[in-house]
Amino acid sequence: MTTLATAIQKSLDGRWAALRDEARTDLDPGRFAPPSEPLDLEGYRARIADQVQALAATGHPKRGFPKSMGGNGDLGGSVTAFELLGHADLSLMVKAGVHWGLFGGAVANLGTERHHTAYLPSIIDASLPGCFAMSETGHGSDVQSLGTTATYDPDTDELVVHTPDLRSRKDYIGGAARDGRMAAVFAQLVTGGESHGVHCVLVPIRDDSGATMPGVTIGDCGAKEGLPGVDNGRLTFDQVRVPRTNLLNRYGDIDEHGTYTSPIENQTRRFFTMLGTLVRGRISVAGGAGAATRSALTLAITYAGHRRQFAPPGGDDEVILLDYRVHQRKLLPALARSYALQFAQNELVSLMHDVQSAGDAADEHQQRELEARAAGIKAVATTHATTTIQTCREACGGAGYLAVNRLPALKADTDVFTTFEGDNTVLLQLVAKGLLTDYRDAFGDLDTFGMAKFGARQFAGAVIERTSARGLIQRLIDSAPGRDSEKGPTDRGWQLDLFEDREKHLLETLALRLRKAGKPGADLFAVFNESQDHVIEAARAHVDRVILESFVAGIDACEDPAAAQTLARVCDLYALSSIEADKGWFLEHGRITPARSKQVTAAVNDLCASLRPHAQELVDAFGIPREWLGTELLAPLA
Amino acid sequence: MTTLATAIQKSLDGRWAALRDEARTDLDPGRFAPPSEPLDLEGYRARIADQVQALAATGHPKRGFPKSMGGNGDLGGSVTAFELLGHADLSLMVKAGVHWGLFGGAVANLGTERHHTAYLPSIIDASLPGCFAMSETGHGSDVQSLGTTATYDPDTDELVVHTPDLRSRKDYIGGAARDGRMAAVFAQLVTGGESHGVHCVLVPIRDDSGATMPGVTIGDCGAKEGLPGVDNGRLTFDQVRVPRTNLLNRYGDIDEHGTYTSPIENQTRRFFTMLGTLVRGRISVAGGAGAATRSALTLAITYAGHRRQFAPPGGDDEVILLDYRVHQRKLLPALARSYALQFAQNELVSLMHDVQSAGDAADEHQQRELEARAAGIKAVATTHATTTIQTCREACGGAGYLAVNRLPALKADTDVFTTFEGDNTVLLQLVAKGLLTDYRDAFGDLDTFGMAKFGARQFAGAVIERTSARGLIQRLIDSAPGRDSEKGPTDRGWQLDLFEDREKHLLETLALRLRKAGKPGADLFAVFNESQDHVIEAARAHVDRVILESFVAGIDACEDPAAAQTLARVCDLYALSSIEADKGWFLEHGRITPARSKQVTAAVNDLCASLRPHAQELVDAFGIPREWLGTELLAPLA
């Protein structure tokens, strides 16, 4: 690694740099890399189950649980270590995420001391493999409408968990098909004939010998596009009885007389509060997607740096792929976006750490901001992963299609990230809803718009704030030149202003459109639906701005001048390639002139050319140990 | 099927409609569908090898060879039948394409009677499984620089085939790893110490017992992202001797005295003529990509037509996915593009049939047009496949990720289509080069630009003409309203004019930029490279126009008024969503006003809504037998 690459890595590694180094050693590929030979489904699942045990032995999973529950209480470190797993086998990452993050997270965050004492020790050491049984065959995004019921039977002081129909079958449940012993089952809680909305109940699904529990039917989702080591399955419950105390009762409880109580009166608010505690899953998926994308970029850019094709006129040496403009344009703006997302992810993890470490003292406002930002970054990071890994595969031609060169698995394994832990389209709607809640104050009567009613089910009630480094961003914007100034498009204030202005315009016009829903007799669904593309556009614009601001803050925090200078150019490439990609909007709305638009394109080309000599350093700075990526792509042919 | 769907299918089925019906019966999924249970690599390869034999027995492969060579001489029918195979197992499609299309095509088109007599019967009945050994580890796109040599030894009257280094190893060769007995090997032909450029030589690689021939080393590419049933491998030749007569000698021959002769003096021209005869491979890949994309759209649109999520305000029934605007926008413009591409593909196949059926009497001009159009349609159709199948997967959420629902295999199998049979980026450059050759006449001195020299190696010398239905298109353009007329964006003349105008502008400005290369001392590579993104843009604009014109011609030929009316709206959606996707360019170049740009977006939304009730009919009209797609996605849950 060059001095420059080392300095940039320090900047990218961020707050948990020391832990990253530790994980780089602990997660060595001898133990956690994908198999070098094809395995059948059962062989792959068995391998991953063993790796989960080995991972437990490293002690890393302890970080994700508070000290009071037998953990290390390093939540940010936990998510960061998980991110590093994204360079190992992604089946392991997801399997670990389901067990410790989702199942363990449900017990820790939705349960109370009796569950913590009874289960967390064996969850932390992975001796009680668990499942997170939320999605159903008929309900994925709309969790509030789940069909599974958990009905209290006062005669036996038990909860009866039941699957009323095929649509209510638990589906795609990681760990269900082979290894899971206990499931955190999300179900409509019913006492005395009254429903209290979705709650979570612990249901044993297999006994210690691995035999399926009575009343439980387990199906196997079989082969999937990717993640072959994750044993996704289906769970059907036929009047399965569990003790009343198996209800995870932090936000809703039943006493021994069958009376339901909750610290949160409003059912919808209770539901979103419960879901909100599970935000770490989305943040973790965004992190893992980032790691996988950086693996792919490291492979494709390293390959493009030595692979040659076609001799130029008058030359004997064939041209190196990365010297072609079109090849630069395929890979370098994607690289810049990965940098931007890494800074945004670091900031998000840091925010999560601070909010969640505060426990019950956490500020609700900050909690809402965390949820919205997690949703937005997750959506953008996973879409970026799918697009970029695809580009990397194509940039490596036939070599990129061979399993031995890792890109196929990176692609197939991460593909589901765009639709699990929240479908990206639904998540972006949630982001927009949060932003509109902010605007309500300004518009007065916005709480009457139909989205509020329809959205109550489709959207969480999140609130979004301006991101950090506010003072710096404001100074840069204030010093920005006018719209058609002589200053080129690399002026940071101009870029920031443009991103912010687009978001504001989209939100304001969206809010105006949605006011129609407030009119008497308005068709609320029609009003919402006719604005739906606008909703998504506004959310994307918001997330783009948050990401840019994170990048700017990250550069500001970088102490090495040479690294900061290079990062500034990468940031230019992120900002300008984003503007170029959306130039239709900026031109349509008179935000840039045609002349400026052409300048932006020229600047993207120039930035690609000027960063090209640093391309290898920029991927080296991701700090992915070479042996983790040991493929034929990395070295030129002898 | 409704009457409307039946009428539209007739239009889409085109010239080889009868054959399509026949193939729909012959290729029944009981024999040619993907396996319902996971198979290991060897099991999958064995299955596909057996299916190839079954396919031979249907007689379809005969169509691809002239009557004079023992075939049926129905070239267009052959490519159409191959396209239908794209609905079956894509491993079978590719394996069949390699054997009959590429290997058989090389023998038929590059060989002469002695090869036809000796080999074609056993190629047609698949008793001599063959490979097409063109790509090398170090040379994929740049075929002219292949490293393998075939050196004439006058002492024994033999050709000595040799792999000088690792970069020259034949790589990714379908059929090499397991089944191939003979390979059509592309190599630099050398006689008396002089090289005559790339030629093709038949080299046995396994004997009748399946044992590897002496001097040949066979490697296995192993598992790939997709196409598990295709046994891609590597071939290394250590001074392998074959009779002189194994040279496929239609365009270059060695007599018994070792003298080289060719009907084409110029080596580069000879090379491109030889490659040109192999154009059917690209057309076939475009066709297969189209079929796979239509399968995916049928699955995703059918699913979206019954899958519900989230209840609207005041309603109990949850909303059907396809009623959401964002979901319509994901699927319906892609559907419209698939329609457009199908008409363009039909036209291309028809052109190919007429040109190639003419044999040596074929017009060279038409041959060049065919090559360029094949390159362009292949690039656009395969990129569309990758993007659209991805969208379809995501639109089906978790269900789309399950292997049993077909989308994973459709995605993985077709992914390599963007980079094999010509990398799409290289193919688009070839298209642009062909267009510029046209412009040379107008600009006079364009033959001095560096691209001509650099391009001589990178580009084939293709010439492109306006597509068919010229009179009709011209009438529509002539009657188009002015740029800011009151007529809405659905005026066909306006759309055609806009597409044509963009292409013309991009080509003219490109030609001007490239003139710099003509200056003394110009850095030819730099001039080319700095225009490379412009080159690709021009080519894409050209292909978009060709596709639109094909669609317009297809509607004109449709005899059912209701079908024609629906097709016209689908065509509007194709044209307007394409304009919307590139609105940045149109606005930047003053081709549309901001107001018109917003009208286009509104029109796309309106078209999505108005076609939504016909969505199921529009996928039914693809005529894919239901049982070929038998997955859980097709029917609502009980």
UniProtKB/TrEMBL annotation, chains A, B:
Pfam families: ACOX, ACOX_C_alpha1, Acyl-CoA_dh_M, Acyl-CoA_dh_N
SUPFAM superfamilies named in the record: Acyl-CoA dehydrogenase C-terminal domain-like, Acyl-CoA dehydrogenase NM domain-like
Gene3D superfamilies named among the record's database cross-references: Acyl-CoA dehydrogenase/oxidase, N-terminal domain (1.10.540.10), Butyryl-CoA Dehydrogenase, subunit A, domain 2 (2.40.110.10), Butyryl-CoA Dehydrogenase, subunit A, domain 3 (1.20.140.10)
Enzyme Commission numbers on file: 1.3.3.6
Annotated InterPro entries: ACOX_C_alpha1, Acyl-CoA_Oxase/DH_mid-dom, Acyl-CoA_Oxase/DH_mid-dom_sf, Acyl-CoA_oxidase, Acyl-CoA_oxidase_C, AcylCo_DH-like_C, AcylCoA_DH/ox_N, AcylCoA_DH/ox_N_sf
Primary location: other
MF terms (GO), sorted A to Z: acyl-CoA oxidase activity; FAD binding; fatty acid binding
Domain Acyl-CoA oxidase/dehydrogenase middle: 131-240
Acyl-CoA oxidase C-alpha1 domain segment(s): 276-436
Lipid metabolism is among the record's keywords: yes
Key words of the record: FAD, Fatty acid metabolism, Flavoprotein, Lipid metabolism, Oxidoreductase, Peroxisome
Span of domain Acyl-CoA oxidase C-terminal: 496-629
Keyword GTP-binding in record: no
Name of this protein: acyl-CoA oxidase
Species of origin: Pedococcus bigeumensis
Subcellular location: Peroxisome
Residue ranges constituting the Acyl-CoA dehydrogenase/oxidase N-terminal domain according to the UniProt record: 49-125
